[in-house]
Amino acid sequence: MRGKRVAMSKFSLLLTMMMATMARSASFDYGDALTKSILFFEGQRSGKLPPSQRMKWRKDSALHDGHDIHMNMVGGYYDAGDNVKFHFPMAFTTTMLAWSVIEFGDKMESDLQHALEAIRWGTDYFLKATKIPNVVVAQVGNPISDHDCWERPEDMDTSRQAYYLTQRKPGSEVSAEIAAALAASSIVFRKIDRRYSKVLLIRAKQVFDFANNHRGSYNDSIGAGACPFYCDFNGYMDELIWGAAWLHKASNNQNYWNFVKSNILSLESSSIVRNVNGFKVLSNGGGFGEFGWDTKNAGINVLVSQGVMNNPSNEIPFVPNANNLICSLLPNSPTKSATYSKGGLLFKVGSSNLQHATSLSFLLIVYARYMQANNKEVQCGNVVAKPSDLINLAKSQVDYILGNNPLGMSYMVGYGQKYPQKIHHRGSTLPTIDVNPNHMGCRDGDKYFQSSSPNINELTGAIVGGPADDDSFQDSRYNVSQSEPTTYINAPFVGVLAYFK
User: Fold this and answer.
1) pLDDT in tens, 90-141
2) Domain range enclosing 285
3) Does the annotation count 484 as an active-site position?
4) Is-catalytic flag, 377?
5) Which of 252, 379, 428, 430 could potentially form a cystine with 459 if both were Cys, beta carbons 3.0 to 4.6 Å apart?
6) β-pairing, 162-165 with 273-276?
7) Catalytic choice (42, 82, 111, 173)
């Protein structure tokens, strides 16, 4: 009993320190950060830009995508600072934007319309990518030729090869993630645009069937198109279960629930391998602690837990694993596997670390709300975690990203007084067509990349890869893992910011 009291007093001390930190950061304008986090997606748009485009330095680009396979693949998002459309992370981005609106759309106010536009920009594109039955377009743009150039998306003259999947060349992870994105988005649009919602759900079912009936990895089917950039090292079973979970949530069809239940244990027995800079790295914390574009385990457990939390016959293994996730993250948990910098930022092995801070913060908040609704606590050894503890941990991550860190730097471009100026992003570094209407070739952008001056165009709302584990940050285009923004860092943060707004 005494040990438990000591543990609880330490826990109370930790919370007091966190509350003090929060008090120092009370001046953060989460509403402004939310607005900017959504605006960022307009800077990543590919295709014909709409009249409502607010990020004016971006122009139409890649208007002939899909021409080589006689399909219209104009649209979608560039994933990061390059000009390739990688559909695997793009689909995860769309799923997370949809989940953000499902959970927190009622808190977004005037930003909701822009969030819906960001989702629809993704789903309209994925409807094109899945238009032909038993064919899924998995990527547009040759990454080797693209990465060899530093040019505006508006000027691209690199290969825009389209990589596609068929029954003989399957890609279950990409297809199932697209199915998840379409299913989640169908929930978002159900009350807003019933016809569109129905179209999304019907297509989600078709694409899931393709993913499930013709199993295989897109690593093998499109090879160098995906690897080493977005190789799926963790297998496709998690995406199939994730897709089925979203389809069950969207359709309430028992068959999808049966699929989830009958296959979830296959994730329990498999080792978690992560893609770290194109290399396979074994996770040290178990699958329950992993969530991102490649590994869906923790997301599955949190998503499913909402409906089974007070149902003993169905809650295993979802709720226990979601609880394990919490215990792996809480700084004072005896089973913690995540590490934290001295400044308080959560770290996992690999580059672009803020993808973990944003996605796991999202899961913390969502799970805290489910716990609250069901009057639950999580037991981590001799430490008891309440919903408020999860919220406080997520808030510490949000505040760190927005500027409450040893450098006093916001890692969101355009937010606060001090933020990264030399991000690794082609369009942001090069003069816009309004300023320089002449075509800029493959190497014409080199002098801008090599310049010590700040980027010419502000990619407002972009969250960069973030600092090193000693809280240091190199504001340099050469330091890709720290200075490059990605759509899948921002997407879960949209929901997180909406909650704290």
Assistant:
1) 999 999 999 999 999 999 999 999 999 999 999 999 999 999 999 999 999 9
2) 2-500
3) yes
4) no
5) 428
6) unpaired
7) 82
